[in-house]
Fold this sequence. Notes:
By secondary structure, chain A is mostly helical.
Amino acid sequence: xxxxxxxxxxxxxxxxxxxxxxxxxxxxxxxxxxxxxxxxxxxxxxxxxxxxxxxxxxxxxxxxxxxxxxxxxxxxxxxxxxxxxxxxxxxxxxxxxxxxxxxxxxxxxxxxxxxxxxxxxxxxxxxxxxxxxxxxxxxxxxxxxxxxxxxxxxxxxxxxxxxxxxxxxxxxxxxxxxxxxxxxxxxxxxxxxxxxxxxxxxxxxxxxxxxxxxxxxxxxxxx
Amino acid sequence: xxxxxxxxxxxxxxxxxxxxxxxxxxxxxxxxxxxxxxxxxxxxxxxxxxxxxxxxxxxxxxxxxxxxxxxxxxxxxxxxxxxxxxxxxxxxxxxxxxxxxxxxxxxxxxxxxxxxxxxxxxxxxxxxxxxxxxxxxxxxxxxxxxxxxxxxxxxxxxxxxxxxxxxxxxxxxxxxxxxxxxxxxxxxxxxxxxxxxxxxxxxxxxxxxxxxxx
Amino acid sequence: xxxxxxxxxxxxxxxxxxxxxxxxxxxxxxxxxxxxxxxxxxxxxxxxxxxxxxxxxxxxxxxxxxxxxxxxxxxxxxxxxxxxxxxxxxxxxxxxxxxxxxxxxxxxxxxxxxxxxxxxxxxxxxxxxxxxxxxxxxxxxxxxxxxxxxxxxxxxxxxxxxxxxxxxxxxxxxxxxxxxxxxxxxxxxxxxxxxxxxxxxxxxxxxxxxxxxxxxxxxxxxxxxxxxxxxxxxxxxxxxxxxxxxxxxxxxxxxxxxxxxxx
Lengths: 223, 214, 263
């Protein structure tokens, strides 16, 4: 066994920084889109209309029960056959958004279902418009109650970004793989990469905690 | 050099599927046991145990599973001993699953109203009895959907086991895809296999969720 | 002589037993292989034509052929451990395999992590692009998307030689790299001779444009394993003189080197 030698990793710190930056960018973009897809899909899946519910059911189950790498390949290599050619980064964001959206929609659906019907009726009695009721009486409390699950899902989404190295996106894992190939120092690279991911997750968790206080101050009221 | 994507290859991928199911079983059993221990630590009254569990969950959740597996298999050499591939898989997947299950199950236990615990105490039930007969039955109801959801992700994650030399479903797909240069067809076949294993579990979970919520 | 898929379960147990024995004795690998009556060789079976599975799903390819010759001349059984690229070197350094034959390109930086034997093949890296594309030199690749399989010799060489402004896109395996070319996601790819031949056989839509550089590939040995290293170099010389390396090159790579560098 060779002694650990990190010099080949540290001398390429600039590339790691580029990788971290790209990982952060595609992950954040995917989180925003996944949330939007999730809300839309959750609302459709709770609608009384079967024609709306069924496609959402199919979307959620196909995505949740097949490997993410296959979805990535289909979007990057399969869509050109249909005339849609995406660059690797766009394909990665699209794939991650679709993937994250499926899980997010299930979480948000549970949140909406936990809203007491009495609240909605109270909103109506106060003369609120359906849109106002949806936004303030249904969606906001629903998101507030499932916020921890959403954060957990976003962490998984961040970690899943490592898969898109397969379609040549130069994110963190991909940079790590490059350095492994150049130096053959696999263990050293993985130790550093793992530390960086833990730090990224810590940053995401911290940011989400701040966001939770800003968006849902009512959760932190003293009783 | 190019081979046509044939039934022979599909058969090869089926042997990989066998490994995938076996690995998933190991991961589910090991993860459930380790997850239970971690949950008990996390909800215990002992602040040191609870704190250790919290840090553990934070670190392991933040580390990509591939890296955990890599360290479990190859890292042990640096400590002067070696582990067999299946041992490394059992250890890494158990550690990984424990972190997520510990978090899910803690949330479920803590969501049972405090009043219930107090009521049980007032009725003279011991702490262990309260846990067994009052808290856990209610917590299981809340924890089932996310637990099954995580299990499905765990099954798909067994694809990482190829790093320790196990030729499971995803690895067979890689091998066939590189021999035939037909990645789309090959990976779609693999996706279908995963779907056939995972979808029944998801459906079962949905049904369970509906029945429990009544 | 070769046990593979069915041996995987056993491999799990055997590897553990073998490795702990290695550690306990800390002797030399050559003696150990002979005593054990078996050599464990790490080969990636997803990198045709070097490592692959044949129509009967048995290991095949150039690396496998060389491994067979080595086992034959050592007078021991051959066990092949399939490995993904990230596991090649850790398998070696943590005693899970005795040697690695995995189309390992030789570079100075890599030689800090493992020892290389003399070369068993010198590949030529070439640019492959649509027949209609006007690409004749590295200058023509500026502003173009060039696909390559990550961490391969192809990658090392194009990264080194590419002119500023060339957009290199790295994929995780050859199937994805080729697929990127076929689906028009990249303008050209860097590939070895054998893969280029195979693509030419399949379709005339793509053709070889020009060669970038030559690169030798060797067998990987643990650092400090000098006895085994020396035996392998002797073996490579003998196999070359008997024409068996050339035969394996012809069969799997469709090209025969005129000579192999020795160092």
